[in-house]
Amino acid sequence: MLGTVTRKVLKTILSDTARQRILTVERVHREGGLFDADSIFYRCVGTVVTWGTGSRVRSGPFAGMRYIQHALGVHSSAYCPKLLGTYEQELHPLVEALRTGHPYVHVINIGAGEGYYAIGFARCLPQSWVTAYEADAESRVILGRMAEINGVAPRLTIRESCTPSGLQAAMAQPGKTLIVCDVEGAEQELLDPVAIPALTRADILVELHDFLIPGISGVIRKRFENTHQITEIPALPRQLADWPSSLSLPKVYRRTALSEYRPGGMCWFWMKAAGNAVLAVAHAD
After folding, report:
1. Residues 234-264: pLDDT tens digits?
2. What is the CATH code for 87-244+265-273?
3. Which parts of the chain are beta strand (E)?
4. Which residues are paired to 157 by β-bridges?
5. Could you state, in order of their start, the residue ranges of all structural domains in the chain?
6. Closest C-alpha among 213, 196, 201, 187 to residue 269
7. How does pLDDT run across 70-116, given as a tens digit for each residue?
8. Residue 229 in 3-state DSSP?
């Protein structure tokens, strides 16, 4: 957590908006227990999950994807749920449908972390090129290594922070584009079809962060309601029943392994560009 001196430094070097965003994340982490994901206990559970899964995603649409244990040290990477295959399982019906029904030429993953979606889509969409944006240098190194061990490095480009101009340039190539966006509130700046007209033609899956930017889901909906069919997918808490039946681990550890340490009330928008076949997404209420 941030001390008094750190807060004073932030006030000196950051804008009010950036500083408040960091302090909001700190509060949510503290009150929601997100720091548990960085604890020694979580790392121990992660090591056991690594052994049990053989460092491969156990279930879900990306089953079989190889992981490296260094990803366990990536801050807030939800390492255990990703290896279990339960990560963001609200999106599994959508991802499964995208695997079979949509010949995307280009997949752009903004906020790629260690590569769960970037590499996952590269594996299950072998006809697609993938661009992964990730600001954290350590995560980019792990992303590159995971791309190599999964055999998708030739079709994956890794870049640093995404900007509106960079995103517009990345979307300049012809063909259908899928955007997967998880950028802790920066969707406000990046998902702007006025600044980036190419967004009106792309299919977009975005995680919304109203706990960081109050009302951002309403802003994004208004920006795309005339060009996209929008389906809201709410985040749900994990249950012990979600545990993969093929994997054995004492129940006392399962809740920790399943948890994504996600603040309540979050959701995703699946925004399908108009003029394309409508994709219905089933999810639990």
Report:
1. 999 888 999 988 888 888 789 888 988 888 7
2. 3.40.50.150
3. 106-110, 129-133, 156-159, 177-181, 203-208, 228-234, 267-273
4. 131
5. 87-244+265-273
6. 187
7. 666 555 578 889 999 999 999 999 999 998 877 899 999 999 999 99
8. strand
